[in-house]
Amino acid sequence: MAAGKSVAHRYFEEFLTAPGDLAVAEEIMTPDVQFLNPVAKTGIHGIEEYQAFAKRWYVGFPDRVFTVDDEVIEGDTVAVRFTITGTHGGEFMGIAPTGAHIEVNGMNLFKLRDGLIADVQAFFNPMELYGPLGLSSPPGGAPMKDQAPAPPPMPAATAPSATDSGRAFEAFLEHEHVLGERVLKAGTVIAEALKGLTSADAIPPGVRAGMGIMVYLHETFADQAHLAAEEAIIPLAVARGMDPAHAKWVNDHHEQARLYWKAMSVAWRRIVDGDPGDAPFAIEDFWRNSEAFVKLFEAHALRENDVLFPEMGRYFSESDDALVMGIITHVGPPDIKPYIDLVTEMEVALGITPPAE
Ligand SMILES: [Fe+2]
Ligand SMILES: [Fe+2]
């Protein structure tokens, strides 16, 4: 659809790229436009707030260029892969100019209404923006530990497993399960909200935003950071004498999870496609798979905490534990903080109060 192409291009090329024209917002956006991104956790609402957002970029990066690298248009949905380049020549989000050069790569998902941008979700690694400006975490985020391969910060307070091995790997993976519990809760909220809906337009915007983030987390994070780490360390326990049959269910559950996630991705694509005849089926496929995943993985995480990890821990020596921690922290993204922020954003979109940090 040519209209879709032109608004996304105008968004990046006329509204955001230098010199920048704030008035373009009124021509390409609906008055109630909303924008979620990894930095603005509660989102940007309305054209005025959007213009204030753009102005921060005008001031902070006077030579900024927002390039559209790729664009896919499906009905009222436009997906754009973008690159932002610029020099930090003015104050930006409270950071005095550093002269640093930034290059940020990411994706925007635009939802159009009557040809105008009504909803924008941006996905990028905030540290591509803030790292060059000298920050070790996005402004307002929890401070990160030094860049050492120490465990990334995780939400505090998990119920201690009754059968802790005392090994570092177990504490680390059980911490990740706390984040997993938040994702599972979001999956339940989404499933409950979708039941009985028969048209994509009936999905409340917050639920829709949450679904998009959920799918993104499944596709880019959960598998690579957590399941892959567990699968990478089980063979060492087996090499040390653990019965491989004791870990078989883990791999089977992981495969099952990947298939639920894949099914949710397909259902999401069908919902986003906007085929009204298919929508009731796509919505039902989404919530049924979400519900099935939640049910299996609530049990899965507990069984890992209480059975698998303690057993593996019995086979690991101290130096195995150090090796295992090295493996865990080198599988998946080096910094999971941006993904934790995405989970928080998903919760906010869904009306769930995120846990205090
Ligand atoms: Fe697992
Ligand atoms: Fe796990």
| Radius of gyration over all CA atoms, rounded | 22 Å
Query: Which bin fits the share of residues in helices?
Result: 40-55%
CATH class category of the largest domain: Mainly Alpha
Number of strand elements = 6
Q: Looking across the biggest beta sheet, what order are the strands in?
A: 2-1-6-5-4-3
Q: Number of folding domains?
A: 2
The secondary-structure element order is HHEEHEEEEHHHHHHH
Average pLDDT over all residues? 87
User: SS-based structural class?
Assistant: alpha+beta
The third-level CATH topology of the largest domain is: Four Helix Bundle (Hemerythrin (Met), subunit A)
What is the CA-CA span between the terminal residues?
A: 44 Å
Low-confidence runs of at least 5 consecutive residues: 141-161
Sum up the structure in keywords:
single chain; 357 residues; Nuclear Transport Factor 2, Chain: A; Four Helix Bundle (Hemerythrin (Met), subunit A); 6-stranded mixed β-sheet; 15% strand; binds fe (ii) ion
